[in-house]
Amino acid sequence: VTVGSILAARIMWSQAAALHFQATAKQADRMVGWLYLSPNLVGFLAFFAFPLAFSLVISFFRWDGLTSPTFIGLENYATTVTDPLFHKSLTNIFWFMALAVPLSVVSALILAVLIHTNYPGVKMFRAVFFVPSVAGVIGVTLIWKRLFNAQTGTINWVLGEWGKWVNNVLPGDPLPEQVEIGWLSDPSAPFGLPDYWWMPSVALLTVVIVFSWAQFGFNTVLFSVGLQSISKELYEAAELDGANAWQRFRNVTLPSLRSTTFFVTATTVILCLQLFDIVYALNQPNPVGFPNNATLTPVVYLYMDRLRGKRDDATHPTLA
């Protein structure tokens, strides 16, 4: 496809082809535009549009990639929709988006507003907070996995030290001095909430923390760019009208960042729906979705379902 596209473009670019087709200057300019778009267009068609269409077609078949596909109609969809594990994955991803999207977007907006000030060292802080966005997701997740370790993790140690300090200040020793929270292995609800099946778990909250930390730096940069595009005359006019800092933020900054906020929120939601790598790295060597499917997401469900091979297996009740 690549070689054929290059040869076709070269032939159409030639003077002989232009004379043969009696091309006008406007048509030649249009041809140049399509030529510059062709690498991205070919990549989109070959690596996104075609796999997407192929996946849609093959979803109506039973196929393991080796044998001949067998047409089964909507059986795959019916089996998935009625699967309790799929319902669990939808519940988890709903809670994940409800927690991770505001945490990633609101914190990024607040940080961008603070960075947008003219204090010394602002550019350095902008670069520091952007580092998690360019770091490898798997490597960063493995570091967080060590931090969240129940016995030797830094987070539990810090909480224990903080508890010791509070107990020295307040009478009655209200906080534990030895903390062993199972951040990666506790399927129960956090903060002493009722442990219903639809409640988010401590393990899912851990995934929210890692995801939000990895994303809010990039969102901060986007908000910083949006803040730089706001005219200073708007702020000056608001100050002349007697608006304080909060009123300027609410009536000038937020409306001006409407399009940026929509873009940041939309991209964060898409990344939430695609969640897989962080869950996979945090759960190793345990099954993906551990513990007790508390971190099971739709993408993880599809991955585990593919490993399981047969959807009608009698041993289907649990994945992890």
Question: How is this structure best summarized?
Answer:
With 320 residues, the chain is mostly helical. The protein is 67% helix and 1% strand.
Helices and strands, with pairings:
Elements: H1 2-13, H2 15-21, H3 25-58, E1 61-62, E2 70-71, H4 75-81, H5 84-115, H6 122-134, H7 137-147, H8 154-169, H9 202-228, H10 232-240, H11 245-256, H12 258-273, H13 277-283, H14 298-308
Antiparallel strand pairs: 1-2
Helix pairs in contact: 1-3, 5-9, 5-12, 6-9, 7-13, 9-12
- Alpha-beta classification: mainly alpha
For the largest sheet, list the strands in their spatial order: 1-2
Binned strand content: under 5%
Written as H for each helix and E for each strand, in order along the chain, the element string is: HHHEEHHHHHHHHHHH
Total beta strand runs: 2
The radius of gyration is 27 Å
> Overall 3D geometry?
flat
Largest sheet: 2 strands, antiparallel
End-to-end distance, in Å? 43 Å
Number of helices: 14
The percent of residues in helical segments reads: 55-70%
Q: Mean of residue pLDDT?
A: 84
Uncertain regions spanning at least 5 consecutive residues: 310-320
